[in-house]
Amino acid sequence: MRICGIKLTHDGAVALVEDGKLVFCIEQEKRDNNRRYQAIDHLESVVSALAEHGLDPRDVDQFVIDGWDGDVESQFQVLSGMGPITLKGAPYVERHAEGLLTSLDGSGLMLDGRLFSYRSYPHVTGHVTSAYCTSPFAKTGQPAFCLVWDGCIFPRLYYVERRGARFLECLFPVIGHLYAAAGHHFGPYKRAGRDWDLGIAGKLMAYIALGSVHEDIMAVFQELYQKRFAGDTELASRYSADINGAELSLAAVHDFFEASALRLLDQAPEDVLASFHVFLERLLVSEMAAAVERHAHLSGARNLCIAGGCGLNIKWNSALRETGLFDAVWVPPFPNDSGSAIGAACSAMVAQDGFVPLEWSVYSGPALLDGQLPSGWDSAPCSMRELASILASNKPVIFLTGRAELGPRALGGRSILAAATSPEMKDYLNDVKLREHFRPVAPICLEDRAPEIFSPGTPDPYMLFDHQTRAEWRDQVPAVVHLDGSARLQTVSRTSEHKVAELLIEYEKLTGIPLLCNTSANHHGRGFFPDAAAACHWGRIEHIWSDGVLLTKTPATEPSPVDGALTLV
Fold first, then answer.
1. Do residues 33 and 529 touch, judged by C-beta distance below 8 A?
2. What superfamily in CATH does domain 136-331 come from?
3. What pLDDT is stored for residue 244 in this prediction?
4. Residue 295 in contact with residue 168, Cβ under 8 Å?
5. Is the pTM of this model over 0.85?
6. Do 17 and 358 contact (CB within 8 A), yes or no?
């Protein structure tokens, strides 16, 4: 049974599941140096993704389109061939508590000149199914709670068992965009207007390390939250009545921050944002604890899956894990909409077979392409030991190997790697990436040594939890230590067959240090490099390793070490 899942809107992607195994997931932003969050606006992208894996649309047994905005149904305007077509889809949220797997059946999906029928499940269904089916709980048949918190919905709690899933409740009346909207009213990303930027939330998580948390600031947010969203007030009642309108709910969010700003004129923006982050964290934790207590009658292990865009907030994930409410907490590497095509395919699989486990690998993205290398680059075979020696000499390397990782974070398949021993390396990497200097650079570390360097240092292969760098290591690996001492750690097992594990082992042999800096290899504001040629054209790092071959930029613009520092010339 071949099921093709399609996400048409932002974070567009095509995924194929065959007999319970993920064959591939091709995110649009990872093709042709596309912009981040790229949508699918032409159905040729679906045909091309299938063709790259030797398949024709006629080889697919079922197509599934992820649902989107709408109370009853959604609509998509896309191109097929030379003309536009309109497709209907399921709504964003299921229409009743037991309706998670209720599909909308459609026709008119035009692929390669032929019409195909399709199904569409609510958008949240894909989040629930992708999170649970990729989890360790699915493998053991254990039930789990599933928290879904996306930008335009309240945090929604579900309960999943092998035979089905059902909606339990909304935890509190705040949409996920509230967090990003805070950055539009305070701090370096403050702007006029009432739109939002999908990239702001991640940047805020870095920026708040500059600030301090103040209880009096949180008291202001608590008071206005009760008055405008949750309390027994006219404003809150009006908000609840209008919540199904995205524009009205966003307007209420901006009104909330405008009222907050008037009360916080004398406060530093970094303190305001740090305090707001903790205000939402405490709200999430307290309401989750109350919900678990309300549903204590549900049998089985206390497990939690986290999905939706807010699942990328590593500090909130860690706070939920540290409550002790759950035996285990699982966050897939694609909790945001980058996993929605997988979720669409999983929804059809679940509708047929129940909540069974999906066989999958995080390295199921596009394969490296063969591109024409520009002039000005030398190439030579390069072993892992030789590459480790280059890194040990304080020179960063673009590391490209195999198929790209799924989700928004570089996990060693499309990475820029560097030694973490120089405090200047973080600033250097932020310079070449055109990022603000307060942004952290993540460590990629051998799993068995992570507890020695980080707290808790538990296995975290997808960078989804918060870790503190232990005091005795902060001076040894300063480039991966954030302003608040934290690190967005990625762990790699020594037994992993991925090439980055072999490199870390060789680097450890040379230096005694089991970790490197790891940041994504991409043009600013775009997805991962699809091939070595794209990295060469970018040209801001002089060494590129691509599946056994080292490309070295001939001297023209070279990094200049000065007392261990790196300078862009």
1. yes
2. ATPase, nucleotide binding domain (3.30.420.40)
3. 61
4. yes
5. yes
6. yes
397-400 β-sheet, strand order: 377-381, 549-553, 543-546, 397-400, 414-418, 515-520, 442-446, 490-492
The answer to whether the CB of 65 falls within 8 A of the CB of 6 is yes
Report CA dihedral (92, 93, 99, 104) to the nearest 10 degrees: -10
Report whether 535 contacts 433 (CB < 8 A).
Answer: no
Rounded Cα gap, residues 14 and 45, in angstroms = 8
List the domain boundaries for the chain.
Answer: 2-126+338-355, 136-331, 367-553
Could you give the 3-state DSSP secondary structure of residue 357? coil
Give the separation between CA 253 and CA 175, rounded to whole angstroms: 8
* 287, two tokens: 């309401």
CA distance 510 to 384: 11
Q: Is 243 helix (H, G, I), strand (E, B) or coil?
A: coil
What pLDDT digit, counting tens, does each position of 51-102 carry?
999 999 999 999 999 999 988 999 999 999 878 999 999 999 999 989 999 9
The C-alpha atoms of residue 375 and residue 403 are separated, in whole angstroms, by 26
- Per the CB < 8 A criterion, the answer to whether 527 and 12 are in contact is no
How is residue 124 written in tokens? 């949240």
Which residues does the chain have with pLDDT short of 50? 557-558, 560-569
CA nearest to 494, candidates 503, 481, 484: 503
How confident is the model over 20-31, as pLDDT tens digits?
999 999 999 999
Give DSSP secondary structure letters for 420-485: SS-THHHHHHHHHTT--TTS--EEEEEGGGHHHHEES----TTS-S-EEEPGGGTTTSGGG--TTS
pLDDT for 245 equals 62
Which tokens belong to 171?
Answer: 């935890």
Q: Which pLDDT score is estimated for 241?
A: 73
The CATH number for 367-553, chosen from 3.30.1380.10, 3.40.47.10, 3.90.870.20, 3.40.1170.60, is 3.90.870.20
From residue 251, alpha-carbon distances to 175, 179, 258, 394 in Å are: 12, 14, 10, 49
**Residue 269 half-sphere exposure, CB side, CA atoms within 13 Å?**
12
Helices (H) and strands (E) in the chain, counts: 16, 26
Tell me the C-alpha distance between 466 and 456, whole Å. Answer: 9
Q: Which residues of 232-248 are buried (b: 16+ CB within 10 A; e: fewer)?
A: eeebbeebeeebeeeee
